[in-house]
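In keeping with the milestone schedule agreed at the kick-off meeting, the structural modelling team has produced records for the first pair of proteins. Each record is given below as a sequence line and a structure-token line. The laboratory manager (R.T.) confirmed that both were archived under the project's standard naming scheme.
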Amino acid sequence: MSTPPEIPVYRETRLRSVIKAISWRCVGTLDTFCVSFVVLTFTGVTDGNRVQALQLSSGIAGVEVMTKIVLFYLHERAWMRVSLGRKRL
């Protein structure tokens, strides 16, 4: 009878959490930029001025990316302390 293969046990490092936060924010910021641009353009807020809509959307996305990287990192690290849904090997 053969023994089952060992399953490696990994833990999340702080560096991995930072890299995940940054990569996720790239996706999220692109989404925020696109949604902001569409809303600003088609609601008439910028009176059809697409350059102004691009500038405002960029500003919104720029502020949002910084705050949400920090929030995601803190959220990720907090979840490392929660045992809900984990099984001890």
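The second protein of the pair:
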Amino acid sequence: MHVPLPLKLGLIALLIAGASGCTSEVPAEISSEPKAAMEGITSTITVLLDERTAAGVASIAEQYEADTGVAVQFRITEDLLADVQLARSTDVVDVIIAPHALQPDLLSGGFIQALGGDPKPDRYLTGAVAAFNLNGVQYGIPLSHENIALSCVAEAMPNSPTSFDEVVEAGLAVVMNDGAGDPYHLFPIQSSFGARVFQAGQNSSDTPQLAMSSPENLAFASWLGANAELFDLASNTETAKKQLLSGDKSCWLTGPWHRLWFEENFGQDGWEVYPVPSVDLQPAAVFLEVIGAMVSSNSQSADAATEFVVDYLGGAPGQVSIFNSTGFPPSNLAALEMISDYKIPFEFGTAGLDGLPTPSNAEMDAVWYPWAQAQVEIIGGAEDPEAIWAKMVRQIQAAIG
């Protein structure tokens, strides 16, 4: 019995959130410029976050208190949603640090509020900012992101490929989960046609508009049918590893959770990470898993919390400090450049520059399985690719209403 695709992707998301394999590679000490002390009676703000992130936020909190006189307390959690609900009924939480996948639950529960002032979105990866934006309203700022990329044996692919044909010629492994398919890993190819899952700007909308019937998506379906020989439906993680070790393949479309395996078999300098080259005219956008900071809706110190989120957690020094403890690439562009000496996190981080947040709306649960099945049927040559794709769209529309 195979694991259903949505569950597999949930497991992937857990790996992304907690097992990247990135070591805590510490850049030189950094500090922020002092600010004038805050006015008013606020003396403390409380941040709800996981233990790993807290280690990086600690130095930011110290700087913030030194600058403003406002102390920062931590509430460490292993179950964020449960603790948010507890905080609502017992005492106040001012700042919530969480994956963007939880934003719909936080919004529907009334646990977070729109950011006040200027969140300075130009400082970050566009897709990472979009992960916390709904209908033009910014509810949080991104702290770090994670994504797949081309992980290549350096001897076989010493430089970033300039075309997808170059990758195909060198040999590309894309795991198809023993015939279950994998739209998550195929998405950068699909997106390079300009294809999207939902209409732009509705990543977490209550009423998202499905975009899968667009001409760009149909163009991808036709391409997939014409290039079916590139994909082995029987492939899995173990076959991909064997292909790279034997030299049958040079690159694997995967994420940083396989870092230790690459380093054990090829050495730290024996592999490289590259952006996925476009198959068509648009950038190949990978899915992004984003961690961000949001202001609690029941904060009694919203101004102080907003300043801490935007100016301290959102700034380059703060994001490098968080990188020190988590190993996840910063979403602040200046901070990402500051970790450029730390090869693998930097290469994965920059491979996500054109990325899009993984859709986190409830309707996405009805998309994964039909999407995967359609791709499997197309690769297997069951019938006309566009006919298969149209059937998939009807199935998804019927499920989401």
